[in-house]
Write a structure and sequence with these properties.
about 190 residues, transcription, transcription regulation
Length: about 190
């Protein structure tokens, strides 16, 4: 059984056989698709409309007013994201079975952040939404876990230094008490 190295050309190539002699002989390209279409199993639309968070099944974590203070809300969500990532690091250390809930909360915060950013810059919706990758999320979590480990190490060093300082104070107090006892015995003996 013989197999071809390359597949045969599509049958419509015959429509272009006279193209080199007469470029106008080729058929017109199909008109652009309007509305929705299916590509690789996914439904897409030609309208560049930012879907609401409710349509995406994500809870909205900022006010639903039309005049949202974007700067304030982005900062608030950023602080909340940092807090949740630190909590995730704690959960991964103490209760690893509960990480899925924290990941879901962090994902919701990320989606809210991206929705706010996308509503500020509608012409960049596709670029920004594609930047939310699993790899980027893992790198972000890893950096926070490293920062947490560094903070824990610094705090452990501070605790050790304070314990040494307390021991030093206790030792000096005992020495001072010994000097006072010696002084009382010396004074009582006279």
């Amino acid at each position: 059984m013989a197999t071809a190295t390359y597949p045969p050309p599509p049958p419509y190539y015959r429509l272009y056989k006279d193209y080199s002699e007469n470029p106008n002989s080729a058929p017109e390209p199909p008109p652009p698709i309007e509305g929705t279409y299916v590509c690789f199993g996914g439904n897409y639309t030609t309208e560049d409309v930012l879907p609401s968070l409710e349509e995406q099944g994500v809870p909205q974590l900022y006010p639903k007013d039309s005049n949202v203070d974007y700067k304030k809300e982005l900062r608030s969500l950023n602080r909340e994201l940092q807090l949740h990532i630190l909590e995730l690091a704690d959960v991964l250390v103490d209760r690893p079975s509960q990480y899925a809930k924290r990941i879901g909360e962090i994902s919701s915060i990320f989606k809210n952040l991206h929705h706010l950013l996308n509503s500020l810059r509608p012409h960049q919706v596709k670029k920004i939404s594609s930047s939310l990758t699993t790899y980027g999320f893992i790198v972000l979590i890893f950096s926070y876990v490293q920062a947490r480990a560094t903070l824990i190490h610094i705090m452990e060093l501070q605790i050790q230094q304070r314990k040494q300082a307390v021991e030093d104070i206790k030792r000096r107090r005992e020495e001072a008490q010994g000097f006072l006892k010696d002084a009382f015995f010396t004074l009582d003996g006279q």
